[in-house]
Amino acid sequence: MIGIIFGSSMGNTEEAANLTAKILVEKGITCEVKNITDISPADFSKYDTLILGSSTWGDGDLQDDWESFDFDAIEISGKKVALFGFGDSAGYSDTFCNAIGKLYNIFVKKGAQIFGFVDTDGYDFDESEAVKDGKFVGLALDNDNQSELTEERIKSWIEANF
Fold first, then answer.
1. Average pLDDT of each block of 10 consecutive residues along the chain (162 residues)?
2. pLDDT given for residue 59 in this prediction
3. Full-model pTM
4. In this structure, how many other beta carbons lie within 10 angstroms of the beta carbon of residue 84?
5. Nearest-5° angle of CA 129, CA 134, CA 136?
6. How distant is the alpha carbon of residue 44 from its chain centre?
7. TM spans, by residue (predicted)?
């Protein structure tokens, strides 16, 4: 089973998590959507694969609920993890989608196998911690400037990775 775990302050990340689940279910893939506030570190182990989502806040920070989560208590070595998140490529062009870069760094150190990298083509930003070797470490979304692309980007990402 896939666990889709998100932190959302304005609702965009929650909507994307639910759309992701809907598309996966349509493909016959079992999944469960959970807010990070509703789970414990031990809950991560019950999923075969994880999809983790966070918006980027302030100067490139994780969403508050992720920020206060106890990552040290997670046992995730060898587990497959995909990432998605929101940023504002115009207003915060130098920290665009940094939150997924932060999640990437945390979960790589914990031994996770990250997948679902996305080309930076079609995005207009200056810098991002979420870019490694010329690709986003997960699905970067921007409802502030490219909301018309969100649903199609999610569908394409799922088709390519699941």
1. 96 97 97 97 96 94 95 94 97 96 97 98 96 97 96 98 97
2. 86
3. 0.96
4. 28
5. 50
6. 15
7. none
Q: What's the domain count of the chain?
A: 1
Burial label for 11, CB within 10 Å (0-12, 13-18, 19+), is exposed
- Count of residues in the chain: 162
The Cα 114–Cα 60 span in angstroms is 21
Q: In this predicted structure, what is the pLDDT of residue 58?
A: 86
Shortest CA distance to 82 belongs to which of 1, 161, 144?
A: 161
Q: What is the CATH number of the domain that holds 125?
A: 3.40.50.360
Domain span at 50? 2-160
CA 57 to CA 154: how far, in whole Å?
Answer: 21
Q: Tokens standing for 69?
A: 């989560």
For the sheet containing 118-119, what is the strand order? 118-119, 135-136, 131-132
| Contact present, 116 and 161 (Cβ < 8 Å) | yes
